[in-house]
Each structure stands twice: as structure tokens, then as C-alpha cells.
Amino acid sequence: MKNADAYYLYDEAVILDNLRTLKQTFPGFRFFYSAKTNPNRHVLQTLLANGCGIDAASAGEVRLAEGFRVAKDDISYSAPGKTDEDLRYALPRCRVIADSIGELSRLDKIAGELGGGFEIGIRINPAFGMDAVAGGPSQFGIDYELLDSLPALQNVKITSIHTHIQSQNLGWETLARYYENVFALAENLKTRGFSIRIINFGSGCGIVYDKSCQTPLDMEALGDAVRKLTEKYAGTAETLIIEPGRYLVGKAGVFRTRIIDKKVSRGKTYLIASGGMNGFLRPAAANIAKLYGPVSRGAEPLISCETPCEISVLNSAETTEVVTVTGNLCSGFDVFARDIALPKAEVGDYLEFSNAGSYACTLSLREFAAQPKVKEFFRTVSGEVVE
Ligand SMILES: Cc1ncc(COP(=O)(O)O)c(C=O)c1O
Predict the structure, then answer these.
(1) C-alpha to C-alpha distance for 261 and 258, rounded to whole angstroms
(2) Hey, which of 243, 305, 355, 358 would you mutate to test ligand 1's pocket, going by the most ligand atoms within 8 Å of its Cβ?
(3) Which end of the chain is more exposed for a tag (fewer CB within 10 A), N or C?
(4) Mean pLDDT of the region 13-35
């Protein structure tokens, strides 16, 4: 680890702690880890070994899950724009969630070619939104209003529904209202002849990126509300699924990068590190977004917050100085932070960035400018660090 100029370090103990909290908050639910948030193999292994399934966002992620011998029923594949090839590959290997009426027809045809008899789900674009507003148009899912005009299906049977309308929520009341709306949607569909075995509520639980303006999701209050809902809607479905990504791993990872140059330009001090946007894109992306106005929700999952992480220096300096921290790409946008006070750092010191466990490594520009690829390390509960 010491020889790497830029690397991620994920902490198994933190992941397991977060999973425990989710299990307490959602008793009786299954958790399908949203693999796209961080598909690192140690992270996947940890979550799979502790009872999680996989939320796959592509046929590639279905293949990834298959490589870990995840059971068919424990993989849910939901994504817009699946090709025929994707559907043909995925149908026998997981639960495919149809994302449009056109896809449903293609799925039924392909299922026929494969012998039929597949249980599938549909992703619904509900009539409700997350914040007590009506649902709008969306590239994701089938509009609720269209559910009466689904094509007749011969080779697949719809036995589950899936919704996901917003990530990164920190309000337990908002989330509880959303879950209640989804339960009510399932009940409504059952009265209209759908036989629903599984409700997949998607994700929603957020994490604090910026302590100065965000407060953590109150998991106790959310847990109380969830318990009341599961009592009220007992029997609505056999299986209830949540698809968490960042809640499990976002705070379990840090990004570290070595300072390779330090210079003063017309009175401003620059720390230049080896892994910028090609290592950890999120801080630079938030800076770029700020140029166009306040950071809004629309930019998830790449941009969640104006200040997406804390930056610290891994040294024992007792004095601070104001610095601008950049990467080493030939781009004026390759900036982690401008004019921040940090412990006085020198060339060779490492910078550490928090909140780097999720939508971090894979969302960065790792192929850009033929820079060395950042590494990923994993600290097990026993303290061993493995690559
Ligand atoms: C369908 C679906 N499920 C789960 C997630 C995971 O969200 P999060 O990482 O915020 O938990 C996402 C994120 O975009 C998603 O689109």
C-alpha cells in the first residue's frame, strides 16, 4: 500500500457495521447490494457472505454476480435500455426487471425462445414522487398509468414490482412516506389482478457528505416507522427488498494520494497530488458543477453535495496553511479544493479524502491521459490489508 501513489482503502468493519444497522432498521427485509456503487471483489464478497443479494444495473453486473455464484433469485437486474443480447443472457440467470412496455414484449418473445416459464418483475414509474409531489416523466420504468395496457404475456409472469425514485435521502419521514406509498401501490396492483410476490423498494437511504450542513438519517425513527408499515402491510408480499449502495459502503472508503509537488504561484500555494480526476473524480466534479449554480439532486450519483468529502493530511504537522489542492492532469478543472486550510504539508505526504467508498473509483476518469491506474485495497476485520 505504501508504494502506491494513489489508492482507495475500504474497511470491512465499517461495511459490516452499516449492514447491521440496515438489518435493525428493516427487520425481515432482504438487502440487494447495488453493485455499481462499488464492485470491488472484497466488498462484494463481504456483503454476499453476510446475506446480501445483488442489484445488477447491467448484464455485466449479472455476469459479475454469477462469477460469485450468486443464486438466480438473489440477483435482480434492473436497467433501462437492455439489448436482446442482455435479455437472452440474463433471463435464465437472474430476475429481470422490465423497464418499458417494449422491453416487456421483447422479453416475452426471448423467454419463449428459451422455453418460457420465467418469473420477472417490472419497474414502475409511480404516480407519486419522493417529496409529496406527483411523479413526473422518467426514462426509468413503466408509467403507473400504463399498467392496464401491458401486452399479454405467454412466456413470462410478472411476480415482482420495483421502484426507485431518489437516492441520497436524509429524511426518515420522507423515506417512510415513500415506503408506505410503494406498499399501497402493491396492494392496488393486487386488487387489479397482479400477483405480486416481491416488492423491491429500490434505495433511498443517504449518508452525510458535509457535516456542516447535513444531519445523519435517523435510523431509529426510520426503523420504528418501517416496523409499523410492515405490520400494517403484513401479507402484501412474501419478500421485501431494499437495494442499498452508498449507505453500506460510502463511508467505508477513503481515497489517498501522495503530494508530488508544492509550489507558490503569485502568492497562492498549490499542493499537486498524483491522483486527481483520474483517481477520485467526485471533488473536481462538484467544483465544476458549482460553476453552473448550486449543486442539485439531478447530478446523482456523481455529484451529491457541494462539499463531497473532507480532506486531511496524513502527517503530524501542528501548523496550518491555506492551499489549493490539485491533481496532475493537464486540466485547469483537476482541482480537489481551492483555498482551504490544511495542516502544513510537504512533498511525499499523503492526502486523505473521506466518503470515497461509493460512486468513487469506478466513476473516475481512470483511462485518461495514460496515468497509472489507482489501486484499491481492503482492510479486513482482522486488520489485514489485501489488494
Ligand atoms: C435502481 C437503483 N437501485 C439502487 C441504487 C443505489 O442507490 P444508493 O447508492 O443511493 O443506495 C440506485 C442508484 O442510483 C438505483 O438507481
Answers:
(1) 9
(2) 243
(3) C
(4) 98
